[in-house]
From TrEMBL:
Organism field: Gracilibacillus xinjiangensis
Transmembrane segments: none
InterPro entries in alphabetical order: ADH-like_C, ADH-like_N, ADH_Zn_typ-1, ER, GroES-like_sf, Lipid_raft_assoc_Zn_ADH, NAD(P)-bd_dom_sf
Ranges for domain Enoyl reductase (ER): 17-336
Protein name, as recorded: Zinc-type alcohol dehydrogenase-like protein
Length: 339
């Protein structure tokens, strides 16, 4: 089968940063689905794993996590899917990736593709949607179904125009929260407003003075999707006493936890690969949330975040897509479709 991978970790401008290879078609084990890949999307984690380093691979390393495709075969223990089902998912970071014609994924982290979306539109969603869902509802412990109580509360989403932020805004609004999103460019401000943000502020400036211009003295929740180090002090100022902060961006420097002490703030990380990486007992929750998301999408309550689609899936186009994401100013998602 065709696949795109790497042997060396090189700048994306280098033609050997991603190369085309031929591999044996994989065979599903007990809990695996064998999926014929129809579309993949590119995330910052793809760029980060591929980024230049001294390490070299003896066998091609296949990147890619987000995918949408058709189940071709199932393992002996599979009960959630059957051949012919259309699925979307974000695979495990510990296994070969989705830049390949066929891919194996544990059925517990796959969901049925939304019927109302194309393969490309669906492929844009899994990693960012899982991250947003887990961040809001598992880590910050917001009750999706308690709109009455949530209507009294607010959330600040830092980095609202990116892939995760674009989903988080929509989910937070469905939950009934007042949403303040950060964006700094005219096109990103327009995008977050279209997705439902009630207020927009600039993440290059301190949060609290901008919030006060809208009559908001604090927020109950903060979801940090951009530069935890840069925003640490500002988050401490903006959060309500006994509030909760979740971040998906690792810190580069030590964080001063005393910033949160006097307010008794809860701080928690979100990493969407945790369940698949450690095979946690609740791993099937990713299947469940993707299934719920499909329903919300087909009901017209959540929209895809696809902004650009490139075809076909090959090394040249993947290098092009990686370069786009590497710039760090993406609005929504870029997807590649069809081998």
């Amino acid at each position: 089968m065709k696949a795109i991978g790497l042997y060396r970790y090189l700048p994306i401008e280098h033609k050997e940063s991603l190369v085309e290879v031929n591999l044996e078609k994989p065979v599903p084990s007990e809990n695996d689905l064998l999926v014929k890949i129809m579309a993949v999307s590119i995330n910052p984690v793809d760029v980060k794993v591929r980024s230049p380093k001294e390490k070299q691979e003896t066998a091609p390393k296949i990147l890619g996590w987000d995918a949408c495709g058709v189940v071709e075969a199932v393992g002996s223990n599979c009960t959630l899917f059957k051949p012919g089902d259309e699925v979307y998912y974000s695979g495990s970071i510990t296994k070969p990736g989705t830049y390949s014609e066929y891919h194996l994924v544990d059925e517990k982290i796959a969901g049925k593709k939304p019927q109302s979306l194309s393969y490309a539109e669906a492929a844009a969603l899994p990693l960012t949607a899982i991250t947003a869902w887990e961040g809001l509802f598992d880590r910050l412990q917001i009750d999706l179904n308690n709109k009455k109580e949530n209507g009294k509360k607010s959330i600040l989403i830092i980095g609202g125009a990116g892939g995760v932020g674009s989903i988080a805004i929509q989910l937070a609004k469905i939950a009934g929260l007042t949403v303040i999103a950060t964006a700094s460019r005219d096109e990103s401000k327009k995008w977050v407003k279209e997705l439902g943000a009630d207020y927009v502020i600039n993440h290059h400036l301190s949060f609290l003075p901008q919030m006060k211009e809208f009559g908001i003295d604090h927020v109950d929740y903060i979801f940090c999707l951009n530069n935890t180090d840069q925003h640490w002090e500002s988050m401490g100022e903006a959060i309500v006493p006994q509030g909760k902060i979740c971040s998906i961006v690792e810190n580069s420097d030590p964080l001063d936890l005393n910033v949160l002490k006097s307010k008794s703030i809860t701080f928690v990380w979100e990493f969407m690969f945790t369940r698949s990486m450690y095979h946690t007992p609740d791993m099937v929750k990713q299947h469940e949330l993707l299934t719920k998301l499909s329903q919300l999408i087909d009901e017209g309550k959540v929209r895809t975040t696809l902004k650009e689609c490139i075809s076909p899936i090959n090394a040249e186009n993947l290098r092009k897509a990686h370069a786009m994401v590497e710039k760090g100013n993406m609005i929504g998602k870029v997807v590649l479709e069809g081998f």
